[in-house]
Design a protein that fits this description.
It is built from 7 helices and no strands. The chain is an all-alpha fold and 166 residues long.
């Protein structure tokens, strides 16, 4: 067994235990594999530092998943996100999570050269930025970390409920 395959298998078996906990948001729409793949992509895009929160700190993946599973979210875009994550996972033979920073950058740059990859990375970036800058009531921008990094505050009046009922 190749070292990367062994590490990936070990990582995923450990993660599956975490997913069984009530605190984990995975399972609301994304498969476990795609949830963690998107989380790794977002963390690569938003590593944090210099006063900016990382994707994990502002809970970008939780925000993304909650946004795309909402009934008002465009189902074609939702399917595009699922399809793009699956395609990246397949291209990298399930090893993306084991890659170091340089390998992730190379994989994402190569994926960006495809029509699916370019649009998918754009959409992940847009949803991540929405999570960074939205009101914390929607699940991202934890502790107003995005607003604090930009030395701003959200709009007033702030929302009192998560979603508008349709």
């Amino acid at each position: 067994m190749d070292r990367r395959v062994f590490l990936a298998a070990g990582f995923m078996s450990g993660v599956s235990t975490l997913l069984m906990s009530e605190e984990s948001p995975a399972g609301k729409g994304l498969s476990e594999d795609n949830y963690f793949l998107i989380e790794a992509v977002q963390q690569h895009m938003f590593p944090g530092g210099n006063g900016a929160p990382s994707a994990k700190e502002f809970q970008a993946t939780r925000f993304l998943e909650e946004a795309i599973v909402h009934p008002s979210y465009d189902r074609d875009i939702r399917e595009f996100i699922f399809r793009g994550a699956e395609k990246l996972r397949q291209r990298e033979k399930g090893l993306f999570l084991t890659y170091d920073k340089k390998e992730k950058e190379q994989a994402l740059r190569a994926f960006e050269q495809t029509s699916l990859g370019s649009g998918w990375l754009d959409r992940i970036m847009i949803l991540s930025l929405e999570g960074l800058l939205s009101d914390p009531i929607y699940g991202g921008n934890v502790r107003q970390s995005g607003w604090k990094a930009l030395q701003t505050k959200g709009g007033e009046p702030r929302p009192s409920t998560r979603y508008i009922e349709l």
